[in-house]
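Posting this for the archive.
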Amino acid sequence: MEVSKSDWKLFRARIGDWQEAYMERLVKEYMDLLDGVENASDKFWKLEERIKKDKKHPGVRLELNKGNMIFDIVTLINSGVITTADVADFSDELKESVDFILRR
C-alpha cells in the first residue's frame, strides 16, 4: 500500500510524542529499579544493561521511512508503545492495512 502524504505527515507529527511517552514509562521503571533494596552496584549494572537494551527499541529509536511506516506502526503497537486507538486519526486505508497485518 502506498502511504498518503497526509498519513505520513501525521505519523511524523505523532512519533515524537509516542516515543516521549514510552521513554517516560521507561524512566519510571528505571526509578523503581533504583529504589530497590539491592546493592548499589547490582542496581547500577542492571540499569546499565537495561538502558543498553532499551535504546535499541522502536519506542526510543526509529528510522523514519515512508515505505516502512505501516510496519513501524504495527511494530509500535505490538511492542506496547502505542495502541490501535492511537491511529484513529489516520486514513481508513492505513488503519485497514495495519489491522490486516496485526491479524496475521
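The helical segments are 5-34, 40-54, 69-78, 92-103. The mean pLDDT is 96.
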